[in-house]
Amino acid sequence: MSLFKKNLYFFILIQIAALAMTSLKAKVYSKLELQQIAIDYVADNRQPNPNRHPNSQLSITALPLDTRIKTRTCQRELQVSAANPINTNRQSTIKIKCLDQNNWQVFVHVKQLELIEVITAAKGISKGQRITAQHLTSKQVAKHLTRSNQFKSSTNLVGSRSKRNVRAGQTINYNYICTICKGDKITILASFKGMTIKTQGEALEDGRIGDNISIRNVKSKKKIQARVLNTELVKVTI
Prior knowledge:
Elements: H1 3-25, E1 27-29, H2 31-45, E2 57-62, E3 72-74, E4 79-82, E5 91-97, E6 105-121, E7 136-142, E8 161-162, E9 177-178, E10 185-192, E11 195-203, E12 212-217, E13 223-228, E14 233-237
Parallel strand pairs: 10-14
Antiparallel strand pairs: 1-3, 2-6, 4-5, 5-6, 6-7, 8-9, 10-11, 11-12, 12-13, 13-14
């Protein structure tokens, strides 16, 4: 074998070995892995939201990739960047790029949602029925879909009475219930100069805990305003 052929043969072997080593170093990325890379990037680079609800949870999800996108291989470290600013409750487009000889890039759409727990009916509640803990459950809803008049806690719901029929799964709003309802017999707690007096009364309108409602003193027949404390008690400050 001539020297030229030997050198050529040796050169080919080196190239084959180099290609084999390069192939071994290449990493294969599935569609799910690409989505997770985009999610992690958003989680690490998102801007803090000063208006975030204290009891909310943040959900970060990637939208499905184009069905034409298959697994991708890259011999270098992937470059990840945001195509637009990353904001809460917004959809961000994340670009994942490979700069090897294949030179490919994938765009992943990532959505952020601030989730808030709201109270819903675990089963049907009839109009006039007293609400128990067994009637209630909760679910997480995107903040932008919630309303200010929805119960976020069951604390002040148990013991209240439903003012309408509520179907299972329905979100419970403030105007669906009354802690004290019109016509209820109640106890009036009156405070005056450190003294406390109790007397009987009747509710002249519906109210929830913390509301001021009109009531009538059964003995004096006098109408007064009182603050609802629970299902049986109101307070008057003289």
